Amino acid sequence: MVFRLPILLLAGLAAVSCTPYERDAARDVSRAPAAQVVGEPVNCIPLHQARESRVRDDFTIDFMRNGREGWRNTLPNRCSGLALQNAFTYKTSQSELCSVDIIYVLETAGGLHRGTGCGLGRFVPIVLER
């Protein structure tokens, strides 16, 4: 009986330590809709052509030219709060948004303010599948 308690305790700790990892893995699954890649990735996109941005999850933003065509940007790291707030801001002195630019989660609690800063990835030309 002396040996059962440590084994049960160890098994319980192992189950508890695995549960958060499994939940995190489930959250990392992209919610971006299927898209066909229609060109090579680029470092910058012209801002006047990106008429709409669609936050898909904490890693993915689609910058759309029209209803189905645009660029998908997969961020190199998770941008915490991006999917939850579903809004971001950026500042650029150019007429382009580039992979070296930083976006900031736009937080709405207590008014609008700039939150977490996140780096962008390259822009992949896409057409959303129906």
What does this structure look like?
This protein has helices at about 5-25, 80-85, and strands spanning about 35, 45, 50-55, 60-65, 70-75, 90, 95-100, 100-105, 115-120, 125-130. The chain has about 130 residues and is of the alpha+beta class. The chain has one domain (about 30-130). The strands form three sheets. The protein has a five-stranded antiparallel beta sheet, with no helix packed on it. A three-stranded antiparallel beta sheet has the order 6-8-9, with no helix packed on it. The termini are far apart. Mean pLDDT is about 85; it is low at about 1-25.
Summarize this structure as a short list of keywords or feature phrases.
130 residues; disordered N terminus; 5-stranded antiparallel sheet; 3-stranded antiparallel sheet; 22% helix; alpha+beta
What is this structure's SSE topology?
Layout: H1 4-27, E1 35-37, E2 44-46, E3 52-55, E4 60-64, E5 69-74, H2 82-85, E6 88-90, E7 96-98, E8 102-107, E9 113-119, E10 123-128
Antiparallel strand pairs: 1-10, 2-7, 3-4, 4-5, 5-10, 6-8, 8-9
How would you concisely characterize the structure shown here?
22% of the residues lie in helices and 35% in strands. It has one domain (30-128). By secondary structure, the chain is of the alpha+beta class.
